[in-house]
Amino acid sequence: MDGSFWVFAYGSLIWQPGFEFAEVRKATLSGWHRAMCILSTHYRGSAETPGLVLGLDHGGSCRGLAYRIAEDKVESVRGYLQEREMVSGVYVPKFIRLRLQDGRDVRGYVFVARRDHKQYAGSLPPERAAQLIHQGRGSTGSSRDYLASTVAHLDRLGLHDKALRRLLDLVDGGRNPVQAVR
């Protein structure tokens, strides 16, 4: 297995990594799937009106991007990611095997959802998820725009996520999800 430092991106790190990288490849993470399962009370929502953002939850697999970080940048990138992703402790950083599109296996630095955290929402009914996404606005924008950016970038990369697309369609649909769900 490649000994380089790789960071796995499955959501906003795809379209806004915020760090310098030496190489980027499509990659698959087995044993975890991308899900709108995290209540956002900072970046894409507030404590009063939380939004919903992505987390990696147990089971399945997830296709995303892997960024290789140059050796002299590893510590600064880890520090940046710690500050960005660990605002509330809802994620756990782990090293997990990734399969790059070219067939190589690498150790990826990955942030997975903490199921025991108060912000872990789990698998919500689509209407409830749409309500949270519709209402969420935080320090970096709306939960809806976060979802739309993720879907658009996954589509551009050929990494289509049908569940996220259906959820975005529900959020943007003809009815107001806030009124539709009690």
At the fold tier of CATH, the topology name is: Hypothetical upf0131 protein ytfp
Please report the number of helical segments: 6
Distance between the termini: 50 Å
The backbone outline, from C-alpha atoms, is globular
Q: Which superfamily, in CATH terms, is the homologous superfamily?
A: Gamma-glutamyl cyclotransferase-like
> How many domains make up the coordinates?
1
Low-confidence stretches: 174-182
Radius of gyration: 16 Å
Write a structural description.
The protein has a single domain, classed as Roll (Hypothetical upf0131 protein ytfp), CATH 3.10.490.10. It is globular. The chain is built from 6 helices and 7 strands; from the N terminus they run E-H-E-E-H-E-E-H-E-E-H-H-H. The N and C termini lie far apart (50 Å). The strands form 2 sheets. A 5-stranded mixed beta barrel has the order 1-3-2-4-5. It has a two-stranded antiparallel ribbon with strand order 6-7. Strand 4 and strand 5 form a beta hairpin. It is an alpha+beta fold.
